[in-house]
Structure formats: structure tokens, C-alpha cells
Write a structure and sequence with these properties.
Blueprint lengths: L12 H13 L12 E6 L5 H12 L3 E6 H4 L3 E2 L12 E2 H11 L2 E5 L7 H5 L2 H10 L3 E3 L7 H13 L8 E6 L9 H15 L4 E5 L8 H4 L3 E3 L2 H5 L4 E5 L31 E3 L12 H4 L6 H6 L1 H13 L3
Parallel strand pairs: 1-2, 1-5, 3-4, 5-6, 7-8, 7-10, 8-9, 10-11
Helix pairs in contact: 1-7, 1-13, 2-13, 4-6, 7-8, 7-13
Bound molecules: phosphoric acid mono(formamide)ester (CP).
The site of phosphoric acid mono(formamide)ester has 8 residues, from helix 2.
Length: about 325
């Protein structure tokens, strides 16, 4: 593996998950692999899980880690080419990424979308430029359109909790929120689950209100239903997530809590396990009775972030 940006960077999902679960069983088995190697984690946006789990994963492999909070501690970045920098931006991404590349063997970057200009966000211009100019392997810590470390974590969590003899039914359901959130987590979850479905690992359904259709690029092969109760029937895993509209880009189209998963709604499932990437707004996105209940996987899922990051770092280190 050279970079980690999307599911396209992985061929055999089952093999990757097995390797991650082997790391979970023996976290320190490859302690010398990353010795004298530096990981740089660059955040243009806040993070709890991604920041800490990726640091822990790197330490388990013997790496050193530097964290740069560009949003708070860095110079204001210019990403456009050919502009006279006589405004508020202080440093161009060409120099900033290149300099960080000289300090690090592998870099990670988190950069959320602006949610104003769909074409610009979906071009992944900032991420692509950073990748070009840093000249080092680059891991997405969540970009404008995808969150691959989260999606790999989710697949690990689903496969380690699957008890049914046949393929588990996995349902991604839209849920309410008061803020306009990116489509990165659901896009990414959808493309990972569609590939997992192709590889015979899961059956995948998406449910959302009309107007919340995701970019078809990410959902090819999924069953898509706008009746949430119908979609939830016989589900083994329910993945709860809000996103803003892709069509009416960045907009919130409906308010109210009708789409919030509750114990009553979950009666239609096959005693489904509940998943959410966190952070979660209690009793807005997801009923606290489900979050705190025996079928909630959210803490185990967040814990598995370490093994997703560690298997990705291990594969990239092995290729340096
Ligand atoms: N799920 C996730 O990426 O969490 P953070 O935003 O806290 O890193």
C-alpha cells in the first residue's frame, strides 16, 4: 500500500480485516517495523478518535509521531495557484506540505469540506495538492468526501460481531441533526459496504428521506429505500449517521426527530447491533436507550479505530 484515501487502495477486504484483527490480538508484534520512522498528523479540523487512535497505532509499531493542528497553530494556508497572496493567507500549500514532507516518512491529513461549492469539495483539490507537494505516503484522516479509516473500522467491527450463518444485513440510516454535516462518512461507508457486498461479506441497504440521495458513485450495488421502517426489517447491523443534502448541496431539508432510531423502530430488526462513528448527539441522532443498551457497538467500534490505523500504517511501512 502506498497511500490510503479510499476503498480503491485495498483489493481483498477480508484479508485486510483479518490482518487488523491479528494486530488487535497482538498489538506489539511489529514493534520494530516503525523504528526511526516519523508519522506527521496534520489536522485542519477537530478530532478526538482519529487523532488518538492513529497516534496509538503508530506507537504500537514503534513510530514517532508529530501532530500539527493547522487550524489553531499553523499559518493560514493558501491552496489556489496563480494568486497574489496579498490577503489573509500567509503560507502556500506548496511550501507547507513540502516542508512537512521533509520531516516525516508518512503523513496523515484531515480536511473537511466547505459545503458551499460541491464541485470544489468533490474535486478533493486540497487533499490532492497536499499529496503532490508532500511527496510522501499520505493517509486520509477524513477528507472532503471520504473517511476511509472510519469505514475500515466499521467493516472490522461488523465482521467481528457477525453471528448469523449467512451474510449479515447492514443498514445505513440517515438520522436528524441540527447542523449541516458532510457526506464523507456515509459516502465512505457506502463504498466500503458496496465492495464488501461484491466480495460476499454483507448485504447492504441504505435508507434516507427523499432529497438525501448520496452521489451514485459511492452507492452502486446498494439497495436504497426511502421507507426507514421497511429498510430496517431483519437488519443485523444498523449504522446511524446524519448527512446534509448532496443535491441541494450542504442544505438541511427536513427538521424534527421522525428519523431518529429508537428501541420501538428497532423491533423490526434481527436484534440489530447499533453503530455510529461518533461524536453523536444523544436523543437527536440516536435514542440514548439504544446508545446505552446491550446492542450498542459504539465504544467497541471507536476502540477498533486503532487496529484500522495500525494495519494501514503496517502495510505502508512494509512498502517504504
Ligand atoms: N469518528 C471520528 O472520526 O471521530 P473524530 O472526529 O473525533 O476523529
Amino acid at each position: 500500500m502506498k497511500n490510503f484515501f479510499s476503498v480503491a487502495d485495498v483489493d481483498d477486504l477480508s484479508a485486510l480485516v483479518k490482518e487488523a484483527l491479528a494486530l488487535k490480538a497482538t498489538p506489539n508484534a511489529h514493534r520494530t517495523l516503525g523504528q526511526h520512522k516519523m508519522l506527521g498528523l496534520v489536522f485542519l479540523n477537530p478530532s478526538l478518535r482519529t487523532r488518538l487512535s492513529t497516534q496509538k497505532a503508530a506507537m504500537n509499531l514503534g513510530m514517532d509521531v508529530m501532530v500539527m493542528n493547522m487550524d489553531k497553530d499553523g499559518w493560514a494556508l493558501e491552496t489556489r495557484d496563480g494568486v497574489v497572496m496579498d490577503g489573509t493567507t500567509v503560507e502556500h500549500i506548496r511550501e507547507a506540505a513540502a516542508v512537512m514532507g521533509t520531516y516525516c516518512d508518512i503523513l496523515g491529513l484531515r480536511s473537511f469540506p466547505g459545503l458551499k461549492d460541491r464541485k470544489e469539495d468533490y474535486s478533493e483539490d486540497l487533499f490532492n495538492k497536499f499529496s503532490t507537494y508532500c511527496k510522501k505516503p499520505l493517509i486520509s484522516l477524513e477528507s472532503a468526501t471520504r473517511h476511509p479509516l472510519q469505514s475500515l473500522t466499521d467493516l472490522i467491527t461488523i465482521l467481528e460481531n457477525t453471528t448469523v450463518a449467512s451474510k449479515p444485513k447492514v443498514v445505513l440510516t440517515w438520522a436528524p441533526h441540527v447542523k449541516a454535516l458532510p457526506q464523507a462518512v456515509p459516502n465512505s461507508f457506502a463504498e466500503w459496504m458496496c465492495k464488501a457486498q461484491q466480495q460476499g461479506l454483507v448485504d447492504f441497504t441504505i435508507t434516507h428521506p427523499e432529497g438525501y440521495e448520496l452521489d451514485e458513485h459511492f452507492t452502486k450495488g446498494a439497495t436504497i429505500i426511502t421507507n426507514q421502517q421497511e429498510a430496517l426489517k431483519n437488519a443485523d447491523f444498523v449504522y446511524v449517521k446524519n448527512w446534509s443534502s448532496y443535491q441541494e448541496y450542504g442544505k438541511i431539508l427536513i427538521t424534527g426527530r421522525d428519523w431518529m432510531p429508537t428501541p420501538e423502530k428497532l423491533k423490526a430488526t434481527n436484534k440489530a447491533k447499533i453503530m455510529h462513528c461518533l461524536p453523536v448527539r444523544r436523543d437527536l441522532e440516536l435514542a440514548s436507550a439504544l446508545l446505552d443498551g446491550p446492542d450498542s457497538l459504539v465504544i467497541q467500534e471507536a476502540g477498533n479505530r486503532v487496529w484500522a490505523a495500525q494495519v494501514v500504517l503496517k502495510r505502508i511501512l512494509s512498502n517504504l
